[in-house]
Design brief:
- This protein is of the alpha/beta class and 179 residues long.
- It contains four helices and eight strands, in the order βαββββαβββαα.
- The protein has helices spanning 17-27, 78-91, 137-141, 150-154, and strands spanning 10-14, 31-35, 41-46, 49-55, 71-75, 95-101, 108-114, 120-125.
């Protein structure tokens, strides 16, 4: 058996590298390290890990269900987690599910969402524990709050690329108040 010393990097396949660079840098706040030469790869750094965004040769769109919920998870403080929920709502990021997990390997409150290429991502607040409040998405973003349309977010009049979803929804079966 080998003794692995560490992880060099993780790779995430994307359909449009420029669009994905903006998403991971400008929305998620990952440190942009640059492109890898003339390749169709860009390197980001977060939490002691490097992540490569690798542009596919042919665009591919899959659902989280087709990939058995394959996803990448980022840990946030409680304040940053709530900020993320509000920011994703404001920017029209497609939210797949809100979960309050009180048992298992990774407990806490989890928000699953899609990147512009349809990759399932998660932001997780591990400080949430059973017995703490379990607000619905609408309660976190504010009742009656609606996401701005994609064109006004970018200061343009044309529709945004459909690869960057603009609807906000949660899997209400996962939220106990909506069960």
């Amino acid at each position: 058996m080998l003794k692995i010393d560490g992880v060099t990097h993780w790779s995430i396949p994307v359909n449009d590298l420029e669009e994905s660079e903006r998403f991971y840098r400008d929305l998620l706040g990952l440190e942009y390290r640059g492109r890898l030469g003339n390749s169709h790869m860009a390197c980001f750094h977060v939490g002691g890990h490097d992540i490569l965004l690798c542009e596919r040769k042919e665009k591919l769109y899959r659902t989280p269900q087709q990939d058995n919920r394959l996803h990448h998870s980022f840990t946030l403080s409680p304040e940053e987690w709530e900020k993320a929920v509000r920011l994703f709502h404001e920017r029209g990021v497609k939210v797949e599910e809100l979960t309050y997990r009180d048992h298992g390997f990774f407990t806490g409150r989890e928000l699953y969402f899609l990147d512009p290429s349809g990759n399932l991502l998660e932001v997780r607040d591990p400080t949430w524990k059973a017995g703490m409040a379990t607000p619905a998405l609408a309660d976190i973003v504010g009742a009656g709050s609606r996401p701005r349309d994609a064109a006004s977010r970018r200061g343009e009049s044309e529709p945004m690329n459909s690869a960057w979803p603009i609807s906000l929804r949660a899997d209400t079966k996962k939220h106990p108040r909506n069960a």
